[in-house]
Automatic annotation (TrEMBL):
Residues 1-30 form the signal peptide. Keywords: Signal. This is M23 family metallopeptidase. One of its GO terms (molecular function) is metalloendopeptidase activity. Residues 263-343 form the G5 domain.
Length: 472
């Protein structure tokens, strides 16, 4: 609520005038009109400026409060207060004062109503007004978060307090601002208040400074607009001595505006990058292994180098990167392999091994279901690995009609063996395979009623009974 001050003691100049009036009232009134009555009027001042005189101040208080309430309604999120002092000074006088309504209207017009605000200062320049200190802090933080992550900012603040975490892939070591950024409490016209998002946009857009552009041969205002990004209408405002029909001579100096940022933000980081160190392979020749056969005694493992960089960004743009440290975090482990040198026998021994890992004979050679079953079937093994029954050369490895995936091995001594219905193949045609070499995995491909191995032996082109050559 407004407080109307009645004060005769605050204005020394006015007291002098008041004293004059009081010294001569009787004398003056005796000459003019002995029946005239003096009236009490209220001289109204807004701050130190005289506005007018009232015979009745009752309507003034309500009008003042109404203006404040109207402003609060227009700006519901702002804290609104009167920023002017209204003072009433009484005086006894004969003259008729101004009409009260006119004086009140002028008081309301001159009355300053302000909002509590926080002014965001960049250097010595105020750039935006927001409603609260929390909003101002959010604006400043949001500007920083355009160039660092929330986590980086928290870690940076932690580092400043002595909490350093060396396990991160990168960390902010410094944030440098080209100007100080702070906020201060002020009272402003509520129309100047903006929200956090708008304040961020204002700061990001920056401002403009005047500069001089020197024209070149045959350049037009349109050319200069394209070059300087200053619109023609603005060029004419900045250079009132020319118009849109002026022919510009080479060397003419024109005032233009150049955009500049309110604030430059430099972010320095320490970045840790891992680089693999390839492991070496040591090969040992082994006479106990067949040619083409390899065994790994020690599995290789890559090492790791940690390279530390110092990076500098200005307003989010990289401007510098230097290596500050390069160290081996873990050494590479050399892989040790043995390679066979033993000649692979391509000729069979004539003695055949059981081609499966265990299992039993589920069907023998002979007539079955009205047709000849050419070999034996082995089912229910311990594992499904199928191996060569004797040394030899793979004659065929692929899909056979009715046999599904199959392998035929020529043992180069008149014998051939067939392995059918495999789930997958582990050898290829032309490959030399010693006895016991894995050639595939038991399956149920082709014409098959279940997972099993169909095994055949041929001698000099004629079908032979496998049970005469192998034992489980």
């Amino acid at each position: 609520m407004f407080k109307l001050y009645n004060r005769c003691t605050l204005f020394k100049g006015f007291l002098a005038a008041c004293a004059v009036v009081l010294l001569f009232p009787i004398h003056s009134s005796a000459k003019e009109n002995e029946t005239s009555e003096m009236k009490t009027v209220q001289h109204v001042y807004v701050d130190d400026d005289f506005v007018g005189s009232l015979t009745d101040d009752k309507g003034l208080q309500s009008s003042l409060e109404e203006k404040v309430e109207d402003t609060k309604a227009a700006y519901p999120d702002a804290v609104i207060n009167a920023d002017s002092q209204v003072t009433l000074i009484p005086e006894q006088m004969f003259e008729e004062p101004d009409r009260d309504s006119l004086v009140i209207d002028k008081v309301i017009h001159d009355l300053k109503v302000k909002a509590d605000a926080y002014e965001i200062m960049i250097g010595d320049e105020g750039v935006a007004y927001v409603s609260s200190k929390a909003d101002a802090e959010e604006v400043i933080k949001s500007i920083l978060l355009q160039y660092v992550t929330e986590k980086e900012l928290e870690q940076y603040e932690g580092k400043k307090q002595g909490e350093v975490n060396d396990t991160q892939e990168s960390r902010v070591t410094d944030i440098l601002l080209s100007k100080s950024v702070e906020s201060k409490a002020v009272h402003v016209d509520p129309a100047k208040l903006i929200d956090v998002k708008e304040a961020i946009e204002v700061i990001n857009e920056g401002t403009h400074v005047n500069a001089v552009y020197e024209t070149k041969d045959e350049e037009t205002l349109a050319d200069i607009e394209d070059i300087t990004d200053v619109e023609i209408t603005r060029l004419l405002e900045l250079n009132p001595d020319i118009n849109d029909e002026t022919k510009l001579e080479s060397g003419t100096e024109l005032q233009v505006e150049v955009p500049v940022s309110y604030l430059d933000i430099r972010v320095e980081r320490e970045v840790f990058r891992n680089k693999k160190i390839a492991f070496e392979t040591k090969i040992i020749k082994d006479e106990q292994l067949y040619e083409g056969e390899k065994k790994t005694d020690v599995k290789g493992k890559p090492g790791n180098r940690v390279i530390t960089y110092k990076t500098i960004e200005m307003n989010g743009q990289p401007i510098e990167e230097t290596v500050t440290d390069d160290r081996v975090a873990s050494e590479a482990v050399t892989q040790v392999e043995r390679e066979g040198t033993k000649e692979v026998p391509s000729r069979g021994t004539g003695t055949f091994a059981w081609p499966a890992d265990g299992g039993y004979i589920s069907s023998k050679q002979g007539q079955r279901w009205g047709k000849l079953h050419k070999g034996i079937d082995i089912a229910r093994p311990v594992t499904k690995t199928i191996t060569a029954a004797d040394n030899g050369v793979v004659e065929f490895a692929g899909i056979g009609s009715g046999y599904g995936n199959m392998v035929i091995i020529d043992h180069k001594n008149g014998y051939k063996t067939t392995y059918a219905h495999l789930d997958s193949l582990a050898v290829h045609s032309g490959q030399v395979v010693p006895k016991g070499t894995k050639i595939g995995v038991m399956g149920s491909t082709g014409h098959s009623t279940g997972v099993h191995l169909h095994f055949e032996i041929h001698k000099n082109g004629a079908l032979a009974d496998p049970l005469k050559y192998i034992n489980q």
